Amino acid sequence: MKLDGQHLRALSAILRNGSFEAAAAELGVTQSAISQRLKALEENVGVKLVHREKPCSGTEAGLRIAAHADHMQAMEQALAVDLGKQVDTQQGRLRIATNADSLSTWFLDAVAEVPEYLYGIHVDDQDFSDDLLRRGEVAAAVTSNGAALAGCDVHYLGKQTYVATASPSFVEVYFPNGMDAVSIARAPMLRYNEKDDLLFQWLDRHFPGKIRPPFHLIPSSEAYARATQAGLGWGLNPLALIKEELINGKLVEIHSKATLDVPLYWQVSRLYKELLAPLTRRICQTTIQSLPQ
Known about the structure:
single chain; alpha/beta; 46% helix
């Protein structure tokens, strides 16, 4: 099956911008041309690729094909650079995935060292980010899964250390006599989203029985840390994000010497291994300095 480059770029632009109109503006063509190119591509592959809604979103097949198109365009750009040709720096988008806590601590420092490409960074829990890689929607992912996916190479990055913390005022209200199974069961906690089970892992490790306290959902690492500091609940914060708050007393550990270490890995599709080699090197170098090994 041969796929037309213009058709692929139209699909990527639609999904990137969320509408046919915005895709047309990006590519400098009419909205009708975008519609015709997508229709031709869908007829060629024999499946629907875009949910025509506001904003437009990709079907499973559409997301995979768009990701492949973006990565192939990036590979063409890299080849042109190697041949000494001038390239449009706005071409070539690398789709990669990471967990939110890495994104808010060390990940962007590594990405910023490889500015040759545009990036599409997808955020998911470290226990699920490799699903995006497995489905072909990204070329590489930060994940807690150390077992290589089919067709992928794995690089160990280090451990993300989490600390059980709360504000001093929260501790006074919910743990005035210290923490035990009764007090922790009634104290509201903070979860990143419904997939986040780090707190359950921590609770199961340190308290008997399946204690499941009430919880708030805070889907942002920075907002999660602020919510902890504001006294909304207790939570597991990455140590790198809250070191200063622990030093100045705005946050306190609610259970001393009870950190949770989550190993992180960088899984890279071998199909794009050479393309991502500079980014892989920077990520590995950054985490040697940023994460406990």
